[in-house]
Write a sequence for this structure.
C-alpha cells in the first residue's frame, strides 16, 4: 500500500491537524493511541505499524491523524486541554467527510473519544477503547509513570528509550529502539511536557453513564502501569459496554498477538452493525440476576467450635447451597469461604432459589440435633454485569453484594429492579426503604422477600 496522502483540517483555534484516509469499508476513525508522539509518515516506515494499518485497511476505511503539537500537525501549540483535543477530532471527521463511523481510541485518546461520543452520539456507531482510562489521574498514579515523568524532565534521550520499552514491552529491543527514534522526530521535549500536563487533567468519569453508543473495552492483561481494575471500572460504568481481556504486555496493538485485537474489533462491529450504511442498533447485553449469600456469624462459629467441627459445618453449608443452586438453575460464580456468588438467566429462578435456600437452612435447623445453626443472608440485583474468565464484575455485582450485607440472617433483600421484574410472579415483598450503598451516589431502595409461611 502506498503512503496515504496527507490532508489538513483546521480546528476552531486555528491549529492545523494532519490527517489521512485509506482502505475500504465502513468508516473507522483511529485516534493517536500510543502517546503524544504520532507521526503518520514515519510510522509507515516501521514494518510492524505498517502491517497493522494495512490489516485495518483491508476491513475498514481508516482515517487517522497526528495529535496537535506532534508529527505533521502544527507544532507551535500551547493549548493541550481536553476541549482542544475534542475540537481537533471534530475538525478531522468533518474534513474527512465521514458522517457516521466507528471510533477507536487508546491510552491518552480514550477520554477524548468518550467526551466526543457523548457530545455526538449520532455520528459514532461504535466506540472501541483500547487500554485506556477515564481520568488522567488513573494513569499518572502508576509508580512506573511517575518514574518516567521525572526522567522526561532530566534526560530526553534516555526517556524516549525507556518509555518505548515500557509501552511496547521490554522484550521489544529493536522495535522499541526504532520507536524511540520516532518519538524524537515526532515531538519536542517542550511539547511533550505540555501535552502530558494537559493529559493529566483529563477527566470524563462523570460522562461514562452518558455514553449511549455500543462500546468495546479492550485491555491487555499484562500491562504493568494500567491495572485491570481501571478497565473493569470503565466497562462497568459505560452502559451497553463489553470488556474483552487479551493476553500480552504491550500497549501497541500491532505487537504481540495482533490477530486477537483485530478479531475482537471485527466481531464487535459485525455484531453491532447489520451492514455499512444501514441503521445501526445496539445489541442488548445479556441481563443476569446476581445472588450473594453470606453465612452469619462465621468467625464466631469457628472460634466456638474449633477448626475441625467448624469446617464440618461449613461443608454442610456448601453442600446445601450447591444442591439448591443446581435445582434452581443457578450458576456458581465463586465461593468466598462463608458465602457464595451465583448468577441466573431468570430473575424468577433467582428469587425462587433464594427462598429455597432459606427454607433448606431453616429445615436443617429444626432437625440439627445439637449441630450449630446456619443463618444465611441473601441479596439479589439484576442488570448487565461484565463477564470475564467465568467471573462477573461491574456495578450490578457490587450492588448485589452491598444489598446482601444489609440483610439479617434468614432474610432475602432484593433491589427494586428485581422486584419489578418479578411483578405478578406470586412473591410477597415488603418495602425496607432506601440506603446509600458505598460507591453509589444515588440511594437504593430494597425490598424483603417474605418467604416464611407466617408471612403469607
Amino acid at each position: 500500500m502506498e503512503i496515504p496522502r496527507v490532508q489538513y483540517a483546521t480546528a476552531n483555534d486555528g491549529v492545523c491537524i494532519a490527517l489521512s484516509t485509506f482502505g475500504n469499508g465502513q468508516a473507522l476513525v483511529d485516534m493517536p493511541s500510543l502517546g503524544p508522539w504520532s507521526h503518520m509518515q514515519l510510522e509507515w516506515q516501521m514494518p510492524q505499524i505498517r502491517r497493522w494499518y494495512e490489516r485495518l485497511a483491508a476491513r475498514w476505511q481508516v482515517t487517522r491523524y497526528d495529535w496537535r503539537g506532534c508529527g505533521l500537525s502544527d507544532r507551535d501549540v500551547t493549548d493541550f486541554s481536553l476541549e482542544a483535543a475534542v475540537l481537533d477530532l471534530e475538525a478531522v471527521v468533518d474534513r474527512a467527510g465521514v458522517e457516521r463511523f466507528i471510533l477507536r481510541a487508546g491510552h491518552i485518546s480514550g477520554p477524548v473519544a468518550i467526551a466526543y461520543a457523548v457530545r455526538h452520539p449520532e455520528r459514532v456507531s461504535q466506540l472501541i477503547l483500547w487500554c485506556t482510562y477515564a481520568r488522567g489521574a488513573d494513569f499518572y498514579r502508576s509508580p512506573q509513570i511517575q518514574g518516567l515523568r521525572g526522567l522526561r524532565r532530566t534526560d530526553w534521550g534516555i526517556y524516549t528509550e525507556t518509555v518505548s520499552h515500557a509501552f511496547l514491552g521490554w522484550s521489544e529491543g529493536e522495535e522499541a529502539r526504532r520507536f524511540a527514534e520516532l518519538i524524537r522526530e515526532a515531538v519536542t521535549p517542550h511539547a511533550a511536557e505540555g501535552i502530558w500536563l494537559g493529559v493529566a487533567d483529563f477527566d470524563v468519569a462523570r460522562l461514562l453513564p452518558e455514553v449511549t453508543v455500543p462500546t468495546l473495552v479492550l485491555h491487555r492483561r499484562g500491562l504493568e502501569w494500567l491495572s485491570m481494575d481501571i478497565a473493569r471500572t470503565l466497562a462497568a460504568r459505560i452502559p451497553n459496554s463489553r470488556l474483552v481481556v487479551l493476553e500480552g504486555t504491550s500497549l501497541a496493538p500491532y505487537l504481540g498477538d495482533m490477530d486477537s485485537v483485530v478479531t475482537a474489533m471485527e466481531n464487535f462491529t459485525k455484531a453491532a452493525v447489520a451492514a455499512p450504511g444501514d441503521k445501526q442498533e445496539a445489541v442488548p447485553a445479556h441481563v443476569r440476576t446476581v445472588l450473594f449469600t453470606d453465612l452469619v456469624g462465621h468467625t464466631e462459629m469457628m472460634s466456638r467450635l474449633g477448626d475441625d467441627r467448624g469446617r464440618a459445618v461449613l461443608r454442610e453449608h456448601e453442600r446445601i447451597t450447591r444442591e439448591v443452586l443446581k435445582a434452581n438453575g443457578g450458576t456458581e460464580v465463586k465461593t468466598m469461604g462463608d458465602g457464595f456468588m451465583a448468577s441466573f438467566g431468570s430473575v424468577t429462578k433467582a428469587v425462587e432459589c433464594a427462598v429455597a435456600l432459606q427454607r433448606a437452612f431453616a429445615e436443617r435447623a429444626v432437625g440439627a440435633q445439637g449441630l450449630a445453626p446456619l443463618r444465611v443472608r441473601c441479596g439479589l440485583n439484576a442488570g448487565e454485569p461484565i463477564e470475564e474468565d467465568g467471573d462477573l464484575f461491574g456495578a450490578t455485582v457490587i450492588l448485589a453484594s452491598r444489598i446482601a450485607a444489609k440483610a439479617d440472617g434468614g432474610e432475602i433483600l432484593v433491589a427494586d429492579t428485581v422486584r419489578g421484574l418479578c411483578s405478578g410472579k406470586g412473591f410477597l415483598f415488603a418495602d425496607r426503604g432506601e440506603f446509600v450503598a458505598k460507591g453509589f451516589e444515588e440511594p437504593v431502595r430494597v425490598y424483603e422477600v417474605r418467604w416464611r409461611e407466617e408471612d403469607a
Summary: The first strand starts at residue 7 and ends at 10. The CA atoms of residues 288 and 324 lie 18 Å apart. The domain at 7-272 is CATH 3.40.50.1820 (Rossmann fold).
